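Thread: sanity check for a docking pose with adenosine-5'-diphosphate

Original post by kr_44:
Hi all, I'm comparing my docking run against an independent structure prediction. Below are the sequence and the ligand SMILES. Could someone generate the full complex and paste the structure tokens? I mainly care about where the ligand ends up relative to the chain.
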Amino acid sequence: MRAIKLLSDGLISQIAAGEVIERPASVLKELLENSIDAGATEILVNIAQGGLKLMRVTDNGTGIPAEELPLALTRHATSKITSQEDLHKITSLGFRGEGLASIASVSCLLLISHQTNGKHAWEIRSEGSRLMPPEPSSHTAGTTVEVRDLFFNLPARRKFLKTEATEFAHCEEVFRRMALSHARITFTLRHNGNLRCHWQAAEGMERIRSVLGEAFSEAATWVDEQSAGIGLQGMLALPAYSRAARDMQYFFVNGRFIRDKLIAHALREAYRDVLHLDRHAAFVLYLTIDPEQVDVNVHPTKTEVRFREARAIHQFVYHGVSKALAAPRSGAESSLNTVTLLPDTSVSSGSAEQPRAGFVPTVPTLTYPRQTYLPSEMIAQPFNFYQILSGGESGKAGGYARCT
Ligand SMILES: Nc1ncnc2c1ncn2[C@@H]1O[C@H](COP(=O)(O)OP(=O)(O)O)[C@@H](O)[C@H]1O
Ligand SMILES: [Mg+2]
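Reply from moderator J.T.:
Ran it for you. Here is the predicted complex with adenosine-5'-diphosphate included:
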């Protein structure tokens, strides 16, 4: 990784409003993103009391040098971008340099890191943003971030949190999304000392099978479309496996879980003739696209994006999904094992020195015989994915625990 540096004022002003730490799951998302960006191949998460008491994420990534530890906890300091150019082709999950600082300001945080090639580990503590000086510590190569007593200094926000079980369910959902989009990383999750999920690094669709279960995989068909630098891969449940809730809808763009109005519309159109109105589709889809063709700097939580060629992407997704739904089911099983997902190899590096594989830097120009109706207001604005798919109100995250 590059060195952590403060962003220039110009760049700061171009960055969409800061990270929002609303609940334990927001903390977990930031920490997992950092571990993935650091090139970890193994990530271990320990949570106590739904994340309110403790959240600890350990990885075997590149680590942080001692002299950069205070910067890691400083707002607008990042190793992931340095210029406006970088901002227009984000290849990492994080880029604003705000995640750790935001978490530190509302918790008691301990960051221990042993940089690859470093002699030993160093740690730094902070309490509601009050930083202590770094001290020698002990840790294998990689990083541990421990977050205790979230919102200890913000009782008002603590009041809005739900029960321990609900907060943990939100964390589990975040964990599942990360595991689904980074199959080549081994993920382990413990809650109150109990093992809840353990997924070994996997190839291809195997991870989807472990995370979403046999029933989904058995009922699913696969998608594998490539065109002019865009790829769509993944698994779609056939209509017989439709669901009463919107709890199995995962769409990733370059390894990032997103909710997007345009994509949701394309999917709804593709499923329109085969799914009853009160049922919901189940799918895990990975869109891979040249990072210059998608703006991820449009929303604080980075779950919304803006496509430069929105109409082409809509058509590509619509046709890919329609084709998969129309194709005979036979042959899907054998292909499931051979399709290799791009995201885990291509998106996780997060550093400018390690450009991602699998992207063709050309502007996609796609033409398809049938144009679906795409309301023009959908092209520019990201929107709640679940809302669009259901035509109703926003779906609740995390209500579907399959880990145990
Ligand atoms: N687990 C980790 N392993 C290695 N480096 C990390 C880790 N977590 C954070 N960092 C470093 O700290 C910096 C600040 O992290 P963060 O506040 O989350 O901002 P961002 O991820 O947007 O850069 C990162 O840019 C990275 O260099
Ligand atoms: Mg980050």
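Confidence is low (pLDDT under 50) at residues 330-402. Hope that helps with the comparison, let us know if your pose agrees.
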